UniProtKB/TrEMBL annotation, chain A:
SUPFAM superfamilies: FKBP-like, Triger factor/SurA peptide-binding domain-like. The keyword Chaperone applies. GO terms for molecular function: peptidyl-prolyl cis-trans isomerase activity. Belongs to the PpiD chaperone family. Pfam families: Rotamase_3, SurA_N_3. It comes from the Bacteria. This is Periplasmic chaperone PpiD. Residues 263-362 form the PpiC domain. It is found in: Cell inner membrane.
TrEMBL record, chain B:
The keyword Transmembrane helix applies. It comes from Sediminihaliea albiluteola. GO terms for molecular function: protein-containing complex binding. This is Ancillary SecYEG translocon subunit. Belongs to the YfgM family. One of its GO terms (cellular component) is plasma membrane. Keywords: Cell membrane, Chaperone, Membrane, Transmembrane, Transmembrane helix. The chain crosses the membrane at residues 24-42. Residues 224-246 are annotated as: Disordered. Residues 15-216 form the Ancillary SecYEG translocon subunit/Cell division coordinator CpoB TPR domain.
């Protein structure tokens, strides 16, 4: 055969073919021919594939986390697969880049280390020790195999090493601490007076011309919000509760009463004789007879048990076996027990274990329950069952009917249901039945809102369904002047009041700048005034708007002061004199504050560093998302 | 291709070839095997070294992450880091350990020690590597803290290829501010702030913002002069002066 091949190779064509095969293997490797060329991943990072499965796993994990964080009422849009998987791909890419970078730096984690970490995880402990069974079953529940779990753990450790080495070794130098403390712990002495907005609001008159002008120049504000009025049918299991049929109740009671009844329980003692391997039948029979006669003569059962019983466990406690409600012992024993009066010795009972003599030492008689005791509970259950069944069948019929019907009235009439009408609802409805995400998205869907169809029957819970259609869609429209008149007057009044407050603040400002003190100015006009010595940037000594303004100003020269004012969120003016600025000092801070500042500076640097590192990896990487 | 008439001739040809080339073939194969196994052994040895270094570094991290740094723990960290720098000096872990030592030295106020650790990292790491770039910025900050502003600023010069521009600018700002060069410091902080706000991630910027607002104050409100507040002229001009002083 070799000869055959050899002679065939002589042909030129064959030679060319053989060379072609050889070259293709040499260049492309065997796997590209065996496994096929194209990539099956959803993205590629520096030539490494990210598989669709990996992304899906990440999406599933995120979904579970979102649901457990926000509950079942979560907006379905947040669980949108497309959105989540876009995020998932990004975070997988970032992680992959970190892994590749760790690899470039020759970072590695030994199997030994992974083992140590796994061994220290208390989730896998049983009775204070690592348990391989718990380990495997916990992993299986979470959808991991030991090797995939270890792989993930290894990656976590690697990323952690990388992070700790670069960003985690960040620090705060003494100079940085000093200069940051100078600014962060700076203290400013402030005297201020407050001019309340309300004080200038009293006698503001608004003219018709002003109202008209405001209305015309601010029309965009006066459009009514878009709203819809709905017709809807709401179905709740409670609406289908019906009186319970007495016969049904009785038959349920018959079925159920046993499980409510207390069982008869017997406390049992026994003496067991077992024939040992080297004991002849005769000897055994003799032993039984001796015991029998001892029992017959009325000797104490407990003593005899201790003396004769081959059941070592019970012998020392007078043969006591504890309680049985009829299923703890072999059948032969149980039937003997049932027939025994208390404190009489049974005749010999044979079981697989040997020969027993039995005494019932205590009997708790069964107590039966009455129908009246159980009635409320059974009624409730029967009603629940019946209502749930009726609800479901009604929902099924309703589904078919509303799908074909022009409106809700027909189906409602057929099923003897009631069509209700809602209040006008907006897209951002915050409370009530119509604020549920599933309902809102149905209302404002193209099908229901624009095409005017009935919605589907929406399940809010297994006991609660709703179907709806839009009765009226109110587009936003310009409201007439009389409707919005009041709000215009309020707006103009507010605007005027703010102008007046500003004017008064400027007067006060001028008076203080001219040399009067804050106190004098405040007293002259009847304003409240206050003094804060040593107010801090991040403290709460000053009202927030005032603090912000005070610390935005440059520090005055020694012995001088700066006077300024600001309007707070309520529109009150706060006129202040900033008289003294003391730079903060690191050494004067409490130890806790010192530590806080150290951490803050190191954290800011390390945050920034990590971010820039990640960004650099991304910029340098060759990333393709399919 | 030669062709042979009989089996004997083929065998004879083979034998002749073997007599001529047998020795060199065996030596060649031997050398090839040696190279392959040697390479594998070397790889294995290196992997082993890395794993050992990784284990030591992991222990160091465990000690360093404890809330309270007792002298005993400090000693343990020193020992582990020393072993990494001596026995595994070629690994990244030695450089990481040195960075950790620098961190602890700064926290201790021992700037000389921090400087020597950072210089060691710079000598060990590849010039353009992330570790070197990070170490350079930190060395500059340590020098600045010692009062050597010029040397620090020199180290903090960035080339366009440096991916850590924002970090370098914050450090420059701190250095300049500590040296009292407020206008230049503001410029550096502003550049850093601009880069950071372009960043997609969320960054912690509390003190950066405080420094920015402190270096770049606003002027107090100017009051329009009205008849009854004529004396405000003085105050008004006063405030302008303060505005300019900023």
């Amino acid at each position: 055969m070799l000869q055959n091949i050899r002679s065939n190779i002589q042909g030129t064509t064959t030679k060319i073919v053989v060379w072609l095969i050889a070259i293709s293997f040499a260049f492309f490797g065997i796997e590209s021919i065996l496994l096929g060329g194209g990539s099956s991943g959803v993205a590629e990072v520096n030539g490494e594939d990210i598989s669709a499965m990996e992304v899906q796993q990440m999406v599933n994990t995120q979904k579970r986390q979102l649901i457990s964080m926000l509950g079942e009422d979560i907006d379905p849009a947040m669980l949108d697969d497309q959105r989540l998987s876009a995020q998932a791909i990004q975070s997988i890419i970032n992680r992959r880049l970190l892994m590749q970078s760790a690899d470039d730096m020759n970072l590695t984690i030994s199997e030994l280390e992974v083992g140590r970490v796994v061994g220290a995880m208390e989730q896998f402990y049983l009775n204070g020790r690592f348990s391989p069974e718990v380990y495997k079953s916990t992993l299986a529940q979470a959808g991991f195999t030991p090797s995939s779990f270890k792989q993930g753990l290894k990656q976590d450790l690697l990323v952690n090493q990388l992070r700790s080495g670069l960003a985690g070794s960040e620090f705060a130098t003494p100079a940085e601490l000093a200069l940051t403390a100078e600014i962060a712990a700076e203290q400013r002495d402030v005297r201020y007076l407050t001019i309340p907005l309300a004080s200038v609001k009293t006698d503001i008159e608004v003219t018709e011309e002003q109202i008209q002008a405001y209305y015309e120049s601010n029309q965009a504000e006066f459009y009514s919000p878009e709203s819809v009025v709905l017709n809807y049918i709401e179905l709740q299991a409670d609406d289908f509760r019906a009186p319970v049929d007495e016969e049904e109740l009785l038959s349920m009671f018959e079925q159920e009463k046993n499980s409510y009844q207390y069982q008869t329980e017997n406390r049992v003692s026994h003496i067991l004789l077992t024939q040992s391997d080297d004991e002849s039948d005769q000897d055994y029979a003799e032993r039984i007879a001796t015991l029998q006669s001892a029992l017959d003569s009325g000797q104490d059962f407990a003593e005899l048990a201790e003396q004769y019983s081959d059941d070592i466990a019970s012998a020392s406690s007078g043969g006591d076996l504890g309680f049985s409600s009829g299923d703890a012992f072999p059948e032969e024993m149980e039937s003997a027990i049932a027939a025994l009066a208390t404190n009489t010795v049974s005749s010999a009972v044979q079981t697989e274990a040997g020969t027993h003599f039995i005494v019932v030492t205590e009997r708790r008689e069964a107590e039966s329950v009455t129908l009246e005791e159980l009635r409320p509970e059974l009624e409730q259950r029967l009603q629940d069952q019946a209502a749930a069944a009726t609800l479901l069948s009604t929902v099924e019929t309703l589904r078919d009917k509303v799908f074909n019907a022009q409106d809700l009235n027909g189906p409602a009439k057929d099923l003897e249901l009631e069509v209700q009408t809602s209040e006008p609802l907006s897209r951002d409805q915050a409370a009530g039945l119509f604020s549920k995400p599933a309902v809102l998205s149905a209302i404002f869907s193209e099908d229901v809102l624009d095409l005017g169809h009935n919605s589907e029957v929406i399940e809010l819970s297994p006991q609660h369904f709703i179907v709806l259609r839009v009765q009226k869609h109110n587009q936003p429209e310009l409201q007439a002047l009389p409707v919005v008149r009041d709000s215009i007057i309020a707006a103009i009044t507010d605007q005027t009041a703010r102008e007046r407050v500003t004017e008064k603040a400027q007067q006060a400002l001028a008076s203080i700048r001219s040399g009067q003190s804050v106190e004098e100015t405040a007293k002259a006009s009847g304003y409240e005034w206050q003094v804060e010595i040593g107010a801090q940037r991040s403290g709460s000594m000053l009202p927030p708007a005032l603090a912000q303004r005070v610390f935005r100003l440059a520090a005055p020269a020694d012995g001088e002061s700066v006077v300024d004012f600001t309007l707070n969120a309520q529109g009150d003016a706060e006129v202040f004199e900033l008289s003294r600025v003391t730079a903060g000092s690191y050494s004067a801070l409490a130890p806790q504050q010192q530590q806080g500042l150290q951490q803050q500076i190191a954290l800011e640097y390390s945050n920034l560093l990590q971010q820039e590192f990640q960004q650099k990896l991304r910029n340098d990487a060759d990333i393709v998302i399919y | 291709m030669e062709s042979y008439r009989t089996e004997e001739e083929q065998v004879e040809a083979l034998r002749r070839w073997w007599d001529e080339n047998g020795r060199s073939t065996i030596v060649g194969i031997g050398l090839a095997l040696l190279a392959v196994f040697g390479w594998q052994g070397w790889q294995q040895y290196q992997q082993q070294q890395r794993e050992q270094a990784s284990d030591i570094y992991q222990q160091l991290l465990n000690s360093a992450s404890q809330a309270e740094l007792t002298p005993a723990r400090q000693g343990e960290i020193e020992r582990l880091a020393g072993s990494l720098k001596d026995d595994y000096s070629g690994t990244t872990y030695a450089q990481f350990a040195s960075l950790q030592l620098a961190r602890l030295a700064v926290a201790d106020g021992d700037l000389e020690r921090a400087e020597s650790e950072l210089r060691w990292v710079l000598s060990a790491a590849d010039r353009s590597s992330d570790i070197a770039l990070v170490a350079r910025q930190r060395l500059a900050r340590v020098l600045a803290s010692n009062g050597d502003t010029e040397a620090a600023l020199d180290l903090l010069k960035v080339t366009s290829s440096n991916p850590y521009v924002a970090s370098y600018q914050v450090a420059r700002g701190d250095t300049l501010l500590a040296a009292g060069r407020r206008a230049e410091a503001l410029e550096a902080y502003q550049l850093a702030w601009q880069l950071e706000s372009e960043n997609p991630g969320q960054l912690n910027t509390v003190t950066l913002q405080q420094k920015l607002s402190s270096l770049n104050p606003v002027a107090p409100t100017d009051v329009e002069l009205s008849q009854d507040a004529g004396s405000a002229i003085e105050a008004g001009s006063d405030s302008e002066l303060q505005g300019e002083g900023a």
